[in-house]
Design brief:
- Helices cover about 45% and strands about 10% of the residues.
- Strands 1, 2, 3, 4, 5 and 6 form a six-stranded mixed sheet that branches. The chain has a three-stranded antiparallel sheet with strand order 10-9-11.
- The relative contact order is 0.08.
- β7 and β8 form a beta hairpin.
- It has 17 helices and eleven strands.
């Protein structure tokens, strides 16, 4: 039976004829997969549809389509490298690895360093940062369809999302993904708190909108007088971030002032500061709440002016002022720069984001920008391996099983006589690779051994 491919046609929008032909070839491969009404996991085309909204490049879109978990069912297997090139094949391989990874356990919540080590391992083992973005899109689709799963699975996936994937989205600066991951996971983990906050936001919506609209109307009137073109709108607050602030400050939702928030987007940097001056001249502002993230960007590259004003009724309104480029970066992070890929254009914000990831993994910060195809060499001085019990161990790249043994415990190092990697015996001079499981074979006696330096 011929499948209806019309729903996938929007994936072709805004691509050249040659690019469309490649996408159609990828879709043709997916269309060979037999229909299964009981299959509820994300499909490649569904993940590609999520990413398409972010104007990702062709190779990312192709890799999303072709990383469909059902592709291994096909006979014969498609030769992705032959048909679509090395980069797409490498991306598909990385995404498949990420989709199959089962290292996370709920106990990591009680051991933050283990969750952090896992986040580092994920970033270090993917050769191209776009693979992580595709994985995040897979997780978003998984969360959207989680009601079909058992309570235990919903809880596990949501906890893993908050511990591992939302923080990674934040570090890559992809805030749209971060917010959706957090809100959906929170909805499954704390359904009552989620409903209470959502209900309160709905009940007070009219009052908030009237307050915001009055502010925007007066501001735009003055900006027009100064010939400053702008886009102004109320900024939605995300339920999980509201809940976290309520917990942190021990406040009820009615006591949180920054539920009222406005974003102002202008054409250039000069207008950012001009708008700030107009806002401060029209309304009383709170000096301690002012932040200049343009002059002093956040570590992930975020730039904007933040200020909080008091309207005539005493309502506090948070105002964010930025250019369109700053806005794109704030919303999409590294994804915002893919439209410049062909020219290899890089920005200070992009380089700042890369430097942050270097700092995260304790590498020397450098001036290198990401290469044109976003190959990642940011994480190449660490190796992340697992004990038989599933604990993650962070080592210097080039480490051997003997280094691993001493990292676990000095006594295990002293008693080490051999090692197994993924169940296979290897010499103690073997160079460990990220993701491997290491088992140390020990003797009863504790003493150094000349066999430690024998490669045979």
């Amino acid at each position: 039976m011929q499948k209806n491919t019309e729903p996938n046609k929007h994936l072709l929008n805004d691509f050249s004829a040659a690019d469309k032909e490649q996408i159609e070839r990828a879709l043709a491969i997916i269309e060979r997969i037999p229909d299964d009404p009981h299959y509820h996991r994300p499909k490649g085309v569904e993940v590609a549809a999520i990413l398409r909204d972010y104007n990702v490049d062709l190779k990312t879109l192709l890799a999303a389509i072709l990383s469909d978990p059902r592709v291994p069912q096909l006979t014969p297997q498609p030769d992705i490298k032959e048909q679509f090139g090395d980069t797409v094949a490498a991306l598909v391989k990385d995404v498949n690895w990420l989709n199959k990874l089962t290292v996370y356990t709920p106990e990591m919540t009680k051991k933050p360093n283990q969750a952090e080590t896992l986040r580092r391992m994920l970033l270090s083992m993917t050769q191209d940062v776009r693979a992580v973005l595709i994985k995040l899109a897979y997780r978003i689709h998984r969360l959207r369809n989680l009601p079909k799963e058992s309570y235990e699975l919903r809880h596990f996936i949501s906890r893993e999302t908050l511990d591992i994937y939302a923080p990674i989205a934040n570090r890559l600066g992809i805030h749209q993904f971060k917010w959706e991951l957090e809100d959906m996971a929170f909805r499954y983990l704390e359904p009552q708190a989620y409903r209470q906050i959502a209900k309160s936001l709905a009940n007070n919506r009219v009052q908030r909108e009237n307050c915001i609209n009055g502010f925007i109307e007066l501001l735009q009137q003055h900006l027009a007088e100064e010939n400053i073109a702008s886009t102004c709108y109320g900024r939605p607050k995300h339920i999980y971030s509201i809940w976290k602030k309520m917990q942190r400050k021990h406040l009820g939702i009615d006591e949180l002032y920054d539920l009222l928030a406005v974003r102002v987007i202008v054409d250039n940097l000069t207008h950012c500061y001009a708008v700030l001056g107009i806002v401060h001249s029209l309304w009383q502002y709170i000096p301690k709440e002012f932040d200049d993230y343009i002059a002093n960007p956040k570590e992930n590259g975020y730039q904007s002016l933040h200020t909080v004003i008091l309207d005539p009724k005493g309502n506090r309104i948070e105002v964010q002022i930025r250019t369109q480029d700053m806005h794109d970066y704030a919303e999409l992070g590294v994804a915002a720069h893919w439209s410049y890929k062909e020219g290899g254009k890089q920005t200070a914000a992009m380089e700042k984001s890369v430097a942050t990831l270097r700092k995260l993994l304790e590498e020397k910060q450098g001036d290198e920008a990401l290469s044109d195809d976003f190959r990642s060499e940011l994480f190449n001085d660490r190796v992340y391996v697992l004990t038989p019990a599933g604990k993650l161990i962070d080592l210097v790249k080039g480490s051997t099983p003997l280094d691993f043994a001493y990292a676990v415990h000095t006594e295990i190092g002293h008693r080490c006589r051999g090692a197994k990697i993924n169940g296979r015996i290897v010499p103690l001079t073997y160079t460990l690779k990220s993701g491997e499981q290491v088992e140390i074979l020990t003797t009863k006696e504790s003493a150094p051994n000349h066999n430690w330096i024998d490669p045979n």
